[in-house]
Amino acid sequence: xxxxxxxxxxxxxxxxxxxxxxxxxxxxxxxxxxxxxxxxxxxxxxxxxxxxxxxxxxxxxxxxxxxxxxxxxxxxxxxxxxxxxxxxxxxxxxxxxxxxxxxxxxxxxxxxxxxxxxxxxxxxxxxxxxxxxxxxxxxxxxxxxxxxxxxxxxxxxxxxxxxxxxxxxxxxxxxxxxxxxxxxxxxxxxxxxxxxxxxxxxxxxxxxxxxxxxxxxxxxxxxxxxxxxxxxxxxxxxxxxxxxxxxxxxxxxxxxxxxxxxxxxxxxxxxxxxxxxxxxxxxxxxxxxxxxxxxxxxxxxxxxxxxxxxxxxxxxxxxxxxxxxxxxxxxxxxxxxxxxxxxxxxxxxxxxxxxxxxxxxxxxxxxxxxxxxxxxxxxxxxxxxxxxxxxxxxxxxxxxxxxxxxxxxxxxxxxxxxxxxxxxxxxxxxxxxxxxxxxxxxxxxxxxxxxxxxxxxxxx
Length: 460
What we know:
This protein is an alpha+beta fold. The chain folds into two domains: 336 residues, no CATH class; 64 residues, CATH 2.40.50.140. It is built from twelve helices and 19 strands. A five-stranded mixed sheet has the order 2-9-8-5-4. A five-stranded antiparallel sheet has the order 17-16-15-18-19. The chain has a three-stranded antiparallel sheet with strand order 1-12-11. β18 and β19 form a beta hairpin. It is globular. The relative contact order is 0.14. One of its GO terms (molecular function) is RNA binding.
């Protein structure tokens, strides 16, 4: 992992400018805080007692808005996941002041060293969060995973749960987690291969708060994070299938690359010197790529962009919502503290599992939510990019004229996208007669923290 350090004061000032520019809220209106304080006093009455089950949470070390807690056991040849999801719908009622504010925000917005949460902290980081400091109301989904890795929803109920411990991705020991988790992950991965899903995750460019400043890093996912992701994936797939069968819901979809895009991807593979036999499909080729290989990571990035971005759609009669990367019908249900849509999907799944009709206000929300979530996602993506641009410029300031080795990761009508080899910086450069996978040298022309801009020129 490569890191670069930026001093705190200048980054903090730049982050404040970004928040103001994007109108990221720094607090909640008083009436929303009062409503949250009142909501946390609401005594659960529709919940069964499941505090005897050994739930644990697994999240980043500093996370306090904990959406999920897991309990995993064997049931004959199957694996049984009891997945407790924060019961935000118990605290937030349709049309109340908390609900209206959440519709304005859409998602939690993350800024290094802070965030603009979807709900006030008294809810999102206390009463509704599945922290191990007391019982919490939750919706517990029972997901059965058969030996072939097929997940189905066996049931759902409102329950009071108690997390035994809060585990962190980078500090957890194998003995801290259910013994069945590696087998659960293995089954899920095998099922993905069979159905043609491609979920290889390349390292993420990220900004992290550190003592005295911030670090710009490429952060790979650790094994515990990958294993944990299979739990959410299984629950989301099982819930999506149940909702689609019931003729309701909101789904996450992504298009397949078309023939022209696949031809271009084959050219990219040749440029990256990655063997892609003509008889091998795009799905099989993507499954052969390795996350720890720089050229393979660049290829994965090109494949992801070729299919276009993921988006939300409501259920439509006669249509099968399809997520190309998952090779399945897929929904977002497992992060209701951080995504507005998940709260409504959870409420719909709870109704469907109990054989009850989906409430009218939830069904209507599925029509209106896609536009709201699209705007929130676009804002979050822009926020992430501006934060990285700021820290990149600070890291590189006063190095104008320096020549860096860089790897070309992609080419489009805006030029070459390059990743510097010595520092975790991604930039654009005018690099004619080059192709993805080429190693070139670029000179830094400008690094302006005020403009959040870095400019390079190719020198060889």
